Amino acid sequence: MKNNSFDEVKIQFEKFLSLIRNVLTSENEINIIQNKLRRHFNTTTSDYLCSNEFILSLNHIHNIFVENKKSVKYFTLLASFDEQLKKHSIKLSRSNSLSTQISECLPSMITTIETNSVNEIVTTTVPSNISKSTIEYETSITDVQEVINHLVNECCNTLSESTSSKKNSVNNIISTSTHSNHDSKHQRKIIKLERRLQRLSRIIRELEEKDMSLDEMAHCDLYVVESNLKKQACEIHNKLAKLKSQPLSIERIIHRPIVLNESEIGHSLIQKDLQEMVNQSKHFPSFSDVLDTVEKAINKYKLNFK
To answer: 23, 45, 50, 271: which could form a disulfide with 4 (CB 3.0–4.6 Å)?
Structure first.
């Protein structure tokens, strides 16, 4: 088959690609094989595609896929067909042509190297059958080497600067992102504690508005609840002060220890425990704190109070 037109070959090739779907079942494999063969077909020289060799090969594999026999190794056939396309690619043919030209010219070239005291001069003589006159290329090897070294150093320096700048940029982005995340978490924690403190303050005010006698306080759980809520509020305030880097001004500032009068309490042991509790307490004690201390002292010292 001579003088085959490229368009006819292209049509026949596409028909063959469509036959692959009749044999293979995996859609993914079909797409990969078709794309690969089509890509190599487009990079193959037109001389080979229009040659009788390729037409015979294409007709052969086309007929095999039409017959669709189970005993045929289709993947092996496709791989062999693809290799034939790659062997006649445009890039490969150009490189082969160039190497052929060089190999043909090299035997007919005469090269002499002259060594001087300062520089080494390379003189290349080309025969007259290649050009009209003898051409001599005189190149200072030392100068060329210096230029090459300079260019290599410049490239290395540029690459090093580019790499370091990218690393610094990435490090800055990471540090900025980390700092931003830390600030965001810090602020959310402050807002959460402030809301809890506001809620506790509102509940404490509602409990304080209820008037109770001493007997009612002693037997009422609400006062104990109020005392515990105040302690929680103080703890939350201290946490907020630390987060905001503010002084803990809500704490008691005791310059001198508080001394309780024994005559007002009526018992030295109870007076001692109450005095220790008042001086050691971080906040001003509530009624429940005093009552709890007295009851513990009675049990501790086994005082028979009725």
So the answer is: 50
Rounded-to-integer distance, Cα 97 and Cα 281, Å:
98
Tokens read off for 146:
């210096």
124 pLDDT tier (thresholds 50, 70, 90): very low
Token representation of residue 160: 């090093």
CATH number of the domain located at residue range(s) 6-100 in this protein: 1.10.8
Bridge partners of 120, per DSSP, are: 115
As given in the structure block, the two tokens for residue 279 are: 């001086």
Per-residue pLDDT tens digits for 178-189: 777 888 888 898
Q: What is the DSSP string of 187-241?
A: HHHHHHHHHHHHHHHHHHHHHHTS---HHHHHT-HHHHHHHHHHHHHHHHHHHHH
* Burial profile 242-267: b = 16 or more Cβ within 10 angstroms, e = fewer: eeeeeeeeeeeeeeeeeeeeeeebeb
> Residue ranges of the domains in the chain?
6-100, 252-306
Q: Which residue has the tokens 């042991």?
A: 269
CA atoms of 150 and 22, how far apart (whole Å): 61
User: Whole-angstrom Cα distance, residue 208 to residue 199?
Assistant: 15
Tell me the whole-structure pTM to 2 decimals.
0.32
